[in-house]
Specification:
The chain is α+β, with helices and mostly antiparallel strands. The chain has 4 domains: 127 residues, Agglutinin, subunit A (Orthogonal Prism), CATH 2.90.10.10; 141 residues, no CATH class; 99 residues, Phosphorylase Kinase, domain 1 (2-Layer Sandwich), CATH 3.30.200.20; 235 residues, Orthogonal Bundle (Transferase(Phosphotransferase), domain 1). It contains 17 helices and 44 strands. Bound molecules: 2-acetamido-2-deoxy-beta-D-glucopyranose (6 copies). One 2-acetamido-2-deoxy-beta-D-glucopyranose binds next to loops.
């Protein structure tokens, strides 16, 4: 039995070897491909053969990149019928049907070719397409069958994603279940044909993210995506076909788009020949609002408008105001004034949006905007309209019926959408327009006024242009995003050999130096203490992940530097240093008025919310404190040192750690004592930070002459005694907004409550900060008392195990 098997494999081996030397990229009916063999495309880019994914022992027939060391499979034939031994054999029958046989008999996979060929051959093309064609056909592009029509999870350049309306072939992509199982997961990507077509990412049967209408230069959800330095994108829509396709401008670049079940995302990877790795660039969904229907019917989602992502469209109000104000947006919005189609309605234009879900839409390519409006006005169930082809001066007409679903607000370049509202709503608008017109006329009547207007228009035009260009730039940057890896020499030179004069301070993970790059850019260099034991690749990968966390309230990581076992992180430089240098400084603190402080508080809250909830990594900061909040030139707060616990030392990424990282005085009791951390321990630190910003005193090192109380204790006592504002001090009380101040004290006490589950999440905190709803009463705060007296330095203490610091937890009942 065993002998027979060996004999059999040896035979196949020989057969194929002799064939491989005749023709490397084709198989004819007389030939076959066995488990050990591969078929290689003419230029050597792709290979077809049998493989086992991940740790699985199953065998699959697939296509992968032939010239790179990392096995990257782009297509799988028998994805739901794996072969459990090495007897797989690929053949092409004389009819042109491809058959994948096991044990010489059973077919685990085959194609359904209806057309018959006289002289069929199977060929692997240089673009990764496996085709069956008639060897005698004079047109080599007449395919009887092609793998591009039966895609799996990877979109290669030149592959169509969409529907051939003539043959009914729908090329819809689906992710692998996981790295070891290529069978289809529930994340799929393709064209939605209903209404006017657009690209959709589905999770099961639910839409997960939409592209918006194609507007000629890109999709309305990503208006500038039409082409870039590396790619050209197209969306073809005619009576025969509807599909999305992209091409590479440089044929020697390897790039692919893949659906990732684990990440629930559509990701683009481009091969970097220098580092021999795939670099991830565009990821869809791109942000919070890119996920389908965040804000319910007739709501509008704006990722730049934290915490209030969701707003009702103009002319609409929340259906359930109570739930809406507590961030439950599911009910969406309804018209604030009922429509009256008979008496006549009007339209309001909203700018820069990703167009709503087109399922309930109607489309015409020939109508213009004016005809579109008239048509929409006539039909009482038409709720909105727009044009879409910006390349042809804005032709085309789409009308929406019923609720408007999944509208996203963009920073620039989005589509204009015209929404139906009651006539009285447009009257309001008109009146204010008339008033504006009168004012303008008066201004223009005077010569200076006229000049002013001209100047203003010029300036704002230039500004708009700048913004657009900026955006393009950042899009491109994003696309080829690679982490800058600095030479050690460059960094040493920039920081004058890490000279003492350039030292900015000593942070949680090591000293920080100020530096100036040869191009004049100012940087902050964090030299990590040498204890991680992480290899350079591992470290770089981790840092790359952190570099992807981008938010205006986070310090931007520019790159890293690796030399021997030195690890350094390079950040943008923040001219105003850290928050503690202001609030604890007798003279500088006067610069921080209450409104400035409130802005800072809201900014920190947003940054932390992003880390906790909205970034793709879900980072728990674990060392949030005033010295880790940096201020830019306009005093906007930026959180620093985030993600370091993750990048630096894997032993600390478990949810229960025996190595406590953080700063005593900011640590939640459950973390300081049991080493248990969660987002709620960050909330605790945020509460302390809030108390410090309000009181101008350090929690640690706070001492009242008569009793060894700390700041939380002090604040809690004042709260119980019903004189919370004493905490803030005269300067803020006299100049600040008292309700806002009170609210912040209230929130800080909610954040430092003893039990983690009672503390609000950052998303609730962000809402509490700006809404006027009643807040719950704070319960007993958690105190950490230190037997060891306070050290003056507030910014170290990250490295000792908790036993050394002898902490004891004490509960205090306020009198
Ligand atoms: C492999 O699969 C075949 C059916 O496809 C089955 O008969 C055979 O027992 C399996 N062998 C092993 C080792 O699982
Ligand atoms: C496989 O099948 C072919 C014909 O169907 C036969 O000639 C050949 O001997 C078989 N080989 C093995 C190893 O069973
Ligand atoms: C062949 O046709 C069947 C039924 O129409 C279909 O389920 C199967 O996916 C097709 N196979 C290929 C490889 O196209
Ligand atoms: C194309 O890409 C290759 C590899 O990345 C590069 O070496 C070559 O310079 C590029 N060619 C052009 C014209 O950009
Ligand atoms: C999906 O993403 C994970 C990381 O989140 C990565 O390890 C995996 O390789 C990705 N899968 C594909 C098919 O790219
Ligand atoms: C409005 O348009 C819809 C969709 O085209 C159509 O079904 C309906 O009959 C129209 N109603 C009127 C009154 O024209």
């Amino acid at each position: 039995m065993e002998m027979a098997f060996y004999f059999y494999s040896a035979c196949c081996f020989l057969i194929i070897f002799s064939k491989a030397s005749i023709a490397t990229d084709t198989i004819s009916p007389a030939e076959s491909l066995a488990d050990t063999m591969t078929l290689v495309s003419n230029d050597g880019t792709f290979a077809l053969g049998f493989f086992s994914p991940g740790t699985s022992k199953n065998r699959y027939l697939g296509i992968w990149y032939n010239n790179i060391p990392m096995q990257t499979v782009v297509w799988v034939a028998n994805r739901i019928n794996p072969i459990n031994d090495s007897t797989g054999l690929l053949k092409i029958e004389s009819s042109g049907r491809i058959v994948l046989q096991v044990q010489n008999t059973t077919a685990v996979w085959s194609t359904n070719t209806t057309a018959s060929a006289r002289n069929p051959v199977l060929q692997l093309l240089d673009n990764g397409n496996l085709v069956v064609r008639d060897g005698t056909d004079s047109n080599p592009e007449n395919y009887l069958w092609q793998s591009f029509d039966y895609p799996t999870d990877t979109i290669l350049p030149g592959m169509k994603v969409g529907v051939d309306l003539r043959t009914g072939i729908n090329r819809r992509f689906s992710a692998w279940k996981n790295g070891g199982d290529p069978s289809p997961g529930d994340l799929t990507y393709g064209v939605e044909l209903e209404g006017s077509p657009e690209m959709v990412l589905w999770k099961g049967l639910q839409k997960y993210s939409r592209s918006g209408l194609w507007i000629g230069t890109g999709f309305s959800g990503a208006p500038n995506s039409g082409s870039s330095r590396i790619f050209d994108y197209e969306f073809v829509w005619n009576e025969n076909e509807v599909y999305y396709i992209y091409f590479l401008k440089n044929q020697s670049v390897l790039s692919r788009v893949v659906l990732n079940q684990t990440d629930s995302a559509r990701e683009r990877y481009t091969w970097n020949p220098e580092t021999q790795t795939w670099l991830q660039s565009i990821v869809i969904p791109t942000d919070y609002c890119d996920r389908y229907e965040r804000c319910g019917p007739n709501g509008k989602c704006d990722s730049n408008n934290l915490p209030l992502y969701c707003q009702c469209l103009t002319g609409f109000v929340p259906k359930w105001p109570q739930r809406w104000s507590s961030s439950d947006y599911s009910g969406g919005c309804i018209h604030s004034k009922p429509l009256d189609c008979q008496k006549g309605d009007g339209f309001i234009r909203i700018r820069n949006v990703k167009t709503p879900d087109t399922t309930n839409s109607w489309v015409s390519t020939t109508m213009n905007l004016k005809e579109c409006r008239n048509e929409c006005l006539r039909n009482c169930s038409c709720m909105a309209y727009t044009n879409f082809d910006v390349t042809r001066g804005g032709s085309g007409c789409v009308m929406w019926f019923g609720d408007l679903i999944d509208i996203k607000h963009l920073q620039s370049d989005g589509q204009d959408l015209y929404i139906r509202v009651s006539a009285s709503e447009t009257e309001l608008k008109k009146n204010s327009k008339v008033k504006l017109a009168i004012i303008l006329t008066t201004v223009i009547a005077t010569f200076f006024g006229f000049l002013l207007v001209v100047c203003y228009i010029r300036r704002s035009r230039r500004k708009i242009k700048d913004e657009v260009e900026d955006k393009n730039l950042s899009d491109k940057e994003n696309e080829d995003m690679e982490l800058a890896v600095f030479e050690f020499g460059t960094i040493a030179q920039a920081t004058d050999n890490f000279s003492f004069c350039h030292k900015l301070g000593e942070g949680g993970f090591g000293p920080v130096y100020k530096g100036t790059l040869p191009n004049g850019q100012e940087i902050a260099v964090k030299r990590l203490s040498k204890s991680s034991g992480q290899g350079p690749t591992e470290f770089k990968n981790e840092v790359r992940l952190i570099a992807k966390l981008q938010h205006r309230n986070l310090v931007r990581l520019l790159g890293c530097c690796i030399q021997g076992d030195e690890r350094m992180l390079v950040y943008e430089y923040m001219p105003n240093r850290s928050l503690d240098s202001f609030i604890f400084d007798q003279t500088k603190r006067a610069a921080l008025t209450w409104s400035k402080r409130f802005q800072i508080i809201c900014g920190i809250a947003r940054g932390l919310l992003y880390l906790h909830q909205d970034s793709r990594l879900r980072i728990i900061h674990r060392d949030l404190k005033t010295s880790n909040v940096l201020l830019d030139s306009e005093m906007n707060p930026k959180i620093s040192d985030f993600g370091l616990a993750r990048a630096f030392g894997r032993d600390q990424t478990e949810a229960n750690t025996n190595r406590v990282v953080g700063t005593y005085g900011y640590m939640a009791p459950e973390y300081a004592i049991d080493g248990q951390f969660s987002v709620k321990s960050d909330v605790f630190s945020f509460g302390i930070l809030l108390l410090e910003i309000i009181s101008g005193r350090k929690n640690r090192g706070f001492y009242l002459a008569d009793q060894g109380s700390n700041l939380i204790e002090h604040a809690w006592r004042l709260w119980k005694e019903d004189k919370p504002l004493v905490l803030a001090g005269d300067f803020l009380v006299e100049t600040g907004d008292l309700p806002e101040l009170l609210r912040c004290i209230h929130i800080s006490l909610l954040c430092v409550q003893q039990h983690p589950e009672e503390r609000p999440s950052m998303s609730s905190v962000v809402v509490m900060l700006v809404s006027c709803n009643e807040l719950p009463s704070p319960k007993q705060p958690g105190f950490v008392l230190y037997n060891k007296p306070f050290e003056a330095d507030s910014s170290s203490g990250n490295d000792g195990p908790s036993s050394k610091n002898e902490i004891s937890l004490s509960l205090l009942e306020a009198r």
